[in-house]
Specification:
single chain, alpha/beta, Spore Coat Polysaccharide Biosynthesis Protein SpsA, Chain A, elongated
């Protein structure tokens, strides 16, 4: 029986500084696995160009011309990391038996690919790459990152703790993922919904090899909001609960004021009134904002616009 074909999908946005080193390490890794009989000789590294403004796509074209080991997908415009990743996964779906997704910056440990492939051969359809520790992170980075996963799970978006987008998916898992049609993508929460037998592989996350992070704090917060509103309705339920709580407090306050009036006691000052007006006004605006976020998601989903458009595919197996 022939070995299983592996595709390593790598989304790229302005990665010209790191691509030469990334391609070198992945080439060595795949050639080693091929020599060991762990994967098929026609396995590939599939770079996805997410509308880069630098020389990322020319570099991918050059790599493809130098070796059939490297393939490429060029999107028509920048669609964001999650859409670019999905484009690569769906392109590889009908070409591979298993697919590993990872970032181009080499923070994901290339050597962990061996353990992922081994878990696949043991019968697992989904293998999550999980950070073993965050010792290299600053306190602020560690606090916000771990808080991100805890808040996401608390709000109903099921995620794997300390897992980003470094994972292996079998062909069956990819077929299941392809049936999720939503436009608002949060793959870290969608993949667990697919089901199938899953496990984890721990690895030490390294420093970014070159270039700048594509996920500063502002984007991370937006990403968290995207995940929660795409996968959970808990915030809407919390608004309902908050409404009942405020109504209950108002009834208690009304009874208190009636009792004070009957006893001839006066209510001192306007401070409490002003504070109450501002607090309730703020809660109303916050609630409208959350509801508006969900309405915006519905608006985008009903349009059913394509999640990505591909300009060109480079793959010598075509």
């Amino acid at each position: 029986m022939r070995p299983n074909r592996l595709y390593v999908v790598v989304p790229c946005y302005n990665e010209e500084e790191v691509l030469p080193e990334t391609s070198r390490r992945l080439r060595e890794k795949l050639e080693g696995l091929i020599a060991a009989g762990q994967i098929a000789a026609d396995s590939r590294v599939l770079f996805v160009n997410d509308g880069s403004k630098d020389r990322t796509w020319p570099i991918i074209r050059d790599l493809h011309g130098q070796s059939p080991l490297f393939s490429g997908v060029d999107l028509t415009r920048n669609r964001g990391h999650q859409n670019a990743l999905l484009a690569g996964l769906m392109t590889a779906k009908n070409r591979a038996d298993m697919v590993i997704s990872m970032d181009a910056d080499l923070q994901d440990d290339v050597d962990a690919i061996d353990a992922m492939v081994a878990r696949y051969h043991e019968g697992f359809d989904v293998v999550y790459g999980v950070r073993s520790s965050r010792k290299k992170d600053t306190f602020f980075k560690r606090f916000t990152a771990e808080g991100f996963y805890r808040v996401m799970n608390a709000l109903g978006a099921e995620t794997v703790f300390n897992h980003a987008d470094f994972r292996l998916l079998s062909k069956a898992a990819l077929e299941g993922l392809s049936q999720f049609r939503e436009v608002n993508l949060f793959l870290r929460g969608m993949v667990p919904l697919v089901g199938y037998a899953s496990t984890t592989v721990e690895y030490e996350r390294g420093e970014r090899f070159a270039g700048e992070s594509k996920y500063p704090l502002k984007k991370m917060l937006a990403f968290a909001m995207e995940g929660v509103t795409s996968l959970s309705t808990k915030p809407l339920r919390w608004i309902t609960a908050l409404g009942f709580l405020i109504f209950f407090v108002s009834i208690v306050m009304l009874i208190t004021f009636i009792v004070q009036w009957a006893m001839g006691m006066t209510v001192a000052g306007w401070a409490s009134v002003v504070c109450s007006v501002w607090a309730i006004g703020g809660l109303i605006l916050l609630s409208l904002g959350v509801i508006g976020e969900y309405l915006g998601k519905i608006y985008l989903e009903t349009k059913a616009r394509p999640r990505f458009l591909i300009r060109e595919i480079l793959d010598k197996q075509d």
